[in-house]
Each structure stands twice: as structure tokens, then as C-alpha cells.
Design brief:
Mean pLDDT: 90
CATH class of the largest domain: Alpha Beta
Radius of gyration: 16 Å
Strand order of the largest sheet: 1-4-3-2
CATH topology of the largest domain: 2,3-Dihydroxybiphenyl 1,2-Dioxygenase, domain 1
Number of domains: 2
Number of strands: 8
CATH architecture of the largest domain: Roll
Low-confidence stretches: none
Distance between the termini: 20 Å
Order of helices and strands: EHEEEHEHEEE
Amino acid sequence: MANRITLITLAARDLQAQAAFYKSLGWESEFQSDDVVFYNLSGLKFGLYTAEKLAHDLNKSVDDLGTGAQTLAVNFASKAEVDTAYDAAITAGGTALKRPDDIFWGGYTGSWADPEGHVWEYAWNPFWELDENGKLKDGV
């Protein structure tokens, strides 16, 4: 099986508030119902799913979902783009965790959390090349 991810889903305790937050970042949903919101990420889908429905799907209680220790990351073509996107996330209501700065491995990263605590990292990685659509090029 090829290495791939086709869908990333986050549990949302307040789906409408989460959808409004991502909309304020400029994200456009391709589908929205009372239980789920999907965004097209050029070959990958990102979903916000009510915590109740996700817990039911996983045969768990909402309290057993937890938040885990994951980070969602977006790579940018420059440090300036990282700064601009980071500032926009904070202005939209995200919580600042780490202001973008140079990091020991040679890149530039900053972290923030959405209103429900999902952690995002915005980064510039000098070792990874992006194509004209902002996707990581294969083999780098």
C-alpha cells in the first residue's frame, strides 16, 4: 500500500464555532451539514465532525476521545509567508503557542491552536521544495 492520507478529521465540540473560525482564516467548505464540514485540500480532505458523532463511530464516549499529541502542519515558501499566515490565525481567534522563529534544524516555525485546542504548526523548511500550488514536491 502506498504512503498516503486522504482524510484528516478533527472532533469538534462546537461544530458551528469551529467552522466559523476556519472560514475566518479564508477556508471555503465544500460540504457542510449539522454534523460535519469538509474542506478540499487539493487531493486531501479535511473534516470537522461533531464530537458526539465521532465518538459514536469509534464506540467511545465523548470524554474518551481525548486530544492526543498531534500537530497539523502547513509549509510555506518563505519566512514572510509563515509570519503573515500566523498573524492571520491569531487575529482570527487562534491561540498563540510559539511565535514563528528560527529553529535548530535550520527551518522557521511557529505554533498556534484553534479555539478547541487543535495545534497547528506553520513552517518554512529549506529542505522541502513546494510546487506552484504549495504542495510538497515528491522526493524532497
